[in-house]
Amino acid sequence: MKKVITGNHAVxxxxxxxxxxxxxxxxxxxxxxxVELLSEFCASGKLNAKFIKVESEHSAxxxxxxxxxxxxxxxxxxxxxxLALMHEMLHWAAGARLPVVLANVNRAMGPGWSVWTDxxxxxxxxxxxxxxxxxxxxxxxxxxxxQAFKIGEKVLLPVMVILDAFVLSHTSEPxxxxxxxLVDRFLPLPPVNLxxxxxxxxxxxxxxxxxxxxxxxxxxxxxxxxDEAVQVAKEVDxxxxxxxxxxxxxxxxxxxxxxxxxxxxxGTITGTARIVVDSERVKGRKVGLLxxxxxxxxxxxELREILPRAQKVVVIDRNxxxxxxxxxxxxxKSALYGLPVxxxxxxxxxxxxxxxxxxxxxEEIVDYxxxxxxxxxxxxxRGVRL
Amino acid sequence: MKFExxxxxxxxxxxVACPGCGGAYSMRMALKALGERTIxxxxxxxxxxxxxxxxxxxxxxxxxxxxxxTAAIAASGIKAGLDIQGKTDITVMSWAGDGGTLDIxxxxxSGAAERNDDFIYVCYDNEAYMNTGIQRSSATxxxxxxxxxxxxxxxxxxxKNITExxxxxxxxxxxxxxxxxxxxxxxxxxxxxxxxxxxxxxIFAPCPTGWKMAPDLMVKICRLAVDSNVFPLYECEYxxxxxxxxxxxxxxxxxxxxxxxxRFSHLTKAMIEHIQKSVNFEWELLxxxxxxx
Amino acid sequence: xxxxxxxxxPKVILEREPDYPPWAVSLTNTLVNRTGSWRIxxxxxxxxxxxxxxxxxxxxxxxxxxxxxxxxxxxxxxxxIIEDNPFPSITGRVCFHxxxxxxxxxxxxxxxxxxxxxxxxxDYGLKRAKAKKSAAHISKQIAIIGSGPAGLTCAYYLAxxxxxxxxxxxFSLPGGMLRVGIPAYRLPKDILNKEIRKLExxxxxxxxxxxxxxxxxxxxxxxxxxxxxxxxxxxxSRNLGVPEEKTRGVYSGLEFLAQINSGKRPRIGKExxxxxxxxxxxxxxxxxxRLGILPKILYRRTRHEMPAVAEEVQEAENEGIPIxxxxxxxxxxxxxxxxxxxxxxxxxxxxxDESGRRRPVPIKGSNFRIKCDSVICAIGEQIDLSVLTxxxxxxxxxxxxxxxxxxxxxxxxxxxxxxxxxxxxVDAIAxxxxxxxxxxxxxxxxxxxxxxxxxxxxxxxxxxxxFELAQKVTMPGLNVKERKRNFREVHLGYNELxxxxxxxxxxxxxxxxxxxxxxxxxxxxxxxxxxxxxDFDYDYCKGCGVCAYECPRNAISMEEEEAR
Lengths: 386, 293, 564
Fold this sequence. Notes:
A: alpha/beta; Rossmann fold; 16 strands; C: alpha/beta; 4 domains
């Protein structure tokens, strides 16, 4: 059934179709519509879940972790300050190997207060063991939420599904909402099959003091699970495609085969960049695009395969790791390190705090990179008004 | 006289509490009352250690270790997770220290109590951050020494009254209890188990290490605390119906309670008098609330 | 210190989980962690001696029978007493109960009514216990001279061990001072008769109307028996030592009592003065009252120095007998050969004498006379040494014997008042019991040893918070009016409910009575409880000492661990 809905509601539908059992959330702009619709689902009986209306995001994540430990399928959504407040428990969810799914609406961090999009909130949480998916459209948002449960439950790691504030969260698009029966065919019914769970019939203590003799191995296993997640995500996406007819890949190369210059994007900038690629091709420039959908684990193999085809790689970051450069740019440089053929990498920062990123902006970036042999700086600031 | 307590144990020896630990003893009693169909939530506190390091456990029921400020919400989450799976007969108990309850955990606790989430919240109160090395908490009483309130400038604020804070949430059951009254403790845990909603049990749980006290006084000091009205035993239902469970025939002077504890050894006569006055004042207030003359 | 057995943990993990668990999930319990190695002090179950047991000359296991009474095991309680004292129905009535004076409960509310419980058990046993039949199987024969408490006790234990025993008695019925010295209102004759019957069933032979030095002789007895136990008591009344005391109307207290106790009514006047402050004086005065005469007691010191049991003095006063203190006789005034007045003088208390009591000193010119027609002189009893042979060592006033009744002669033993001078019935019983052991040891060379633990539990050793105030159960008795003109027993004894209630007041000082406190309060689950006892699990006990502190009765001791 096709419906014109916002990105936020796409999240809600995804969580509902995935048969979330325990939801704990706290309101924050621009995430509120997610929990509003889920509340309605719960109230009307469309979703049989316990919705704990907690008093903070920290508690939202704690409640999800605890509920997940019993084997329940759990979901929460937040944004920006809320995600930052969860930080401690985000560690805990990953360390406890619990497949909690979280939708984060990318929003800039205060101060000053901003409700508009950038990626600094979610990228600040990249090192915790969570899987991260950045979405381009409302359809992808819904589908990724459903996929996230399956991937997370397979590798026993929590998954963050990320969408841009307002550009997706509050923008309505037609979304194909699948039948429950189809989703059920794709995603096993809860409860989640955990190797150990809180169970009075098989009692264990979870998360006790762990000495240096043991802690190291447990952390090693998180990385192993992250490694494994690359393949799992691909397979799950394939399965999704087989059952529901849509797939996204963990990265999406667009007109990259013969490209001399490849743009690298994530989130909604991808859609704008796609138009620019087409218009540049009309102009005769061989420009391609690589959309990064799964950022954690980093699809290193894919990056090393696709990007060296071009002489130039232009990474567009809607975030800044202060003291260094854009996060995607850094990671791509690191991914390509050691290859015999190295493309020249341009790292652009753009759209911080929700400033518009237009097709013209991207055209000018492409133009600059085409005409410039080498970037004169590690960071190329686009549109800073000083 | 013989204490009638359930004989079955739900804890293993070999746990790593200090000798004479009031917290360890209290868990033993609580589990005797609650039985094996219980899940225990332990935030950062002495009990994070006591239950044993990975891969060990001392409690027979499952234990969920969680972050410092999340004792209450983790219980809410576990209860929700069990309920949605139809496992509705399991008691969930949060087991937090005074720091985890009165300080860092009060937000989540207040939230859970406001929602009346169905679990037992236990604060085993040893009146300071003992696990980290005896730093003051808002449960540390006026005049006490801790490593952050040295004897030259002992704690100058009175203890936060957490039980009254919880009672103000109008939760169905709030109670105080302590080690010297195992039958009282067992009864209150059983009662808490039988009630749906948020139950709060405040245990006065001595820490011989942090109180600079001989470990064999673990029980005795509790008796003195009750008999001097420093820690009255009472319970309150729905924030309204107070019952004082033990009214000392003739309260003993607080000095007798303070004396065996090194953490009070610096107190002057005037300071002890001040403590006596405030204990009398609080006791009168409690009696008023309970309608006892 | 190594406290966690990390070596076994990897093995445990490998058994359960060939690979490491995905995160910190426990795989076994803390039993692998033997926290007993932390211990500096070690608790030990170690029963102490309750002060009552210690104060009892016979070392009755008082706490022990109190526990049995609490469980309503009355017959077992009786059997436990008679291990140390064969005649609880007697001592339960006449003992001065030093046990009660030392009872820790006395410092808390009121001493336990130990002798009331003892009396109940004694009577219960007399009625219900199966009589032990003659069991003489040892070919040794022991002659016992005197059938007072020392002689009877020694006879009982020897007969029970299988010896042949013959008891010689000067009076026409056995019992010695129990029969002739103690009035029936304190010790009814049928109780005494039943106790003696118990011995006869055991096979003890009694030969009455045999007087040492007249009908029998020590030298003969030595020849015809394998051992002899002299238990002749102290039956010789002390003289007043005042002029004209041989006058008619002046009686000895013992003689007076002996006549009453043999069922005769002594010929005595209407105005009686009883001289003395001991039990004989009080017994004589109260007996006189029961003959319908109101006597006066004169005593040369004050109430505080009276050797008589305070309760008996109190009873005498309740019955209306006046006691005049600080008065001593000086001279008997007679007319027509019969006493008419007693001249006395007033006294005051001076410096303490060798008994520790303050010595009475006459006040000059304070003499006065009291009208009377009879004087009962009860100022003490002495031992008659004239009946002994010369080869027995004496102190000059008593027979020399050690605590086990051993005299200087190998097969001659002596005990009771004839060795110690007048003391309590239970002292004589203790002497009889110890001598029985010594005689047995004499024949068998079995070692005899004093067994009670020297460590006594005092009031300060108790955790008094565990005890609740409880009034002593009042002993029912005759009112003063009912006591007039008869020798009916004054105290009527506890019933089952009363005895249970009273025994329940016992603190069980120093002796574990399975109150569970150690088990209840152990924070380390290191007290193992079984049906009949507790044990410490030293693998896990950290030695905090809570068990010892919370033991209400001092039955756990903390000992320093040896350095490892």
